[in-house]
Amino acid sequence: MTTIKDIAKLAGVSVATVSRVINDDPGVKEKSRDKVLQTIRETNYVPNTVGRNLRKSKSDMILVMLPTLSNPFYAKILKGIEERASELGYGVLVSVTHHEVKTEKKYLKMLEMKQVDGVITLFSTLSTEELNNLATKYPFVQGCEYTEGAQLPYVMIDNKKAAYEATKYFISHGHQRIGMISGSFYESSERGREQGYRDAILDAGLIFDKKYIVKSNYKPESGMEMCRALLSFSEPPTAILTVSDTLAIGAIKYLKSIGVAAGKEVEIIGFDNASITRVYDPTISTVSQPRYDLGRVSVDLVVEKINDIKVVNKGIILPHELILRESTHEDDE
C-alpha cells in the first residue's frame, strides 16, 4: 500500500511538502505541487485526510465557481444551488475565479484531492479539450455559459431565441434601425444573442449592418459610452438591445444626459431582469432568465453525475420571458 513517504520519494520532495500539497497550502511552489499531484495520480494514492475509507469516499460537497462577485446576476442562481444541494444532502463551497485560468485550475484540484464530489461552473476559461478531459473523470456541469463542443451536462436559456424575440418586438413597433450593445467576454451567450438579433432583422426584410453591434465590458459606464457611439451615427438607432441590465442602465443614463427620453424617443431592452430594473427610472424592459431554477437544475445534473459518471450528458434549455416596462413604450405594458 502506497504511503505518503512513497509519494515524497517518487516525487523527489519532502514528506512535509507532500502534506502541504494535500492540504492545499498556497505556499508550495507550482513545480513541486505539479510533481506531487502527478505522482498521486500515477500511484492512485488517496490521502487519509481527504480521501477517507479508500477511493469510494465522498465529501458530500459541491464546488461552485463564479467568474466574479460584482455581478448581482448570480445571487438567485446561488440561492437555487444552495437550497437544492441541501435538499439532496450536499454542502456548497463557492469560489471566485476572477476570469483567470490559473485560479480556476487551482480550485479544480479539489476534485483530484476528493475535497469536493462535483463542480458547477457558471463560466469557465478552460478550452473545450480541457473541459472534455475533465468531464470524463469528474462530475462537472456548466450553468448559463456553455462552451461549444464540450461533452458535459449544461443548463441555460436559448439566448438566440431570447434576443430574436426582443428584436422582433422592436421591429413590430416600427423600428428599422436597431442597435445592440453586446460584450466581449461571455462568448457563448453573446454569440447566441448577436445571432438572434441579426436573424430577426434579416427575417423582417431589413438591412443588417454589423456596425450597429458595439462591444462593451458590462459596466454601466461602458453602456453609456456605447450608447453615445451608436447615437453618433448619421442614422442612429431608434431602439437598443443590450446583453445585460447594467448596460441598459448605462444606455439610459446617457440618454438622460443628452435630454432624450428612454422609452419614448429611444426604446431600450436589457437582459437578466435584475432587481434594479423594477425600480430604476424609467423601469427597464428586460429578458428574464429563471435564475433560481438554473441553480436548482445544475445541482440535479451534477448529483446525477456524482451517482454515475457514465450517465448520458444532458443539455437542458429553460424558458425565458420578455418583460415590458417603461423603457419601451408605456402603453405596451
Structural overview:
By secondary structure, the chain is α/β, with parallel strands linked by helices. Helices cover 42% and strands 17% of the residues. The chain has 11 helices and 12 strands. The strands form 2 sheets. The chain has a 6-stranded parallel sheet, with helices on both faces. Strands 7-6-8-9-10-12 form a 6-stranded mixed sheet, with helices on both faces. Helix 8 links the parallel strand 6 and strand 7. The N and C termini lie far apart (70 Å). The model is unreliable at 49-56 (pLDDT under 50).
Secondary structure layout plus pairing:
Elements (H helix, E strand, L loop, with lengths): L3 H8 L3 H8 L7 H14 L17 E6 L7 H14 L3 E6 L4 H12 L5 E4 L6 H10 L2 E4 L10 E4 L1 H14 L5 E6 L3 H17 L9 E4 L3 H12 L7 E4 L2 H13 L9 E6 L12 E4 L2 H17 L7 E4 L2 E3 L10
Parallel strand pairs: 1-2, 1-3, 3-4, 4-5, 5-11, 6-7, 6-8, 8-9, 9-10
Antiparallel strand pairs: 10-12
GO molecular function, one term: transcription cis-regulatory region binding
Protein name: DNA-binding LacI/PurR family transcriptional regulator
Keywords: DNA-binding, Transcription, Transcription regulation
Under CATH, the topology of the domain at 159-289 and 321-332 can be stated as Rossmann fold
CATH superfamily of the domain at 159-289 and 321-332: Response regulator
- Output the CATH class name of the domain at 159-289 and 321-332: Alpha Beta
Q: Provide the CATH architecture of the domain at 159-289 and 321-332.
A: 3-Layer(aba) Sandwich
Question: Span from first to last CA?
Answer: 70 Å
Oligomeric grouping of the chains: single chain
Helix content: 40-55%
Poorly predicted segments: 49-56
Order of helices and strands: HHHEHEHEHEEHEHEHEHEEHEE
Mind telling me the C-alpha Rg?
A: 23 Å
Counting helices, strands and paired strands, the structural category is alpha/beta
The best one-word shape is: elongated
Percent of sequence in beta strands:
15-25%
GO molecular function: DNA-binding transcription factor activity; transcription cis-regulatory region binding
Protein name: DNA-binding LacI/PurR family transcriptional regulator
InterPro entries: HTH_LacI, Lambda_DNA-bd_dom_sf, Peripla_BP/Lac1_sug-bd_dom, Peripla_BP_I
Keywords: DNA-binding, Transcription, Transcription regulation
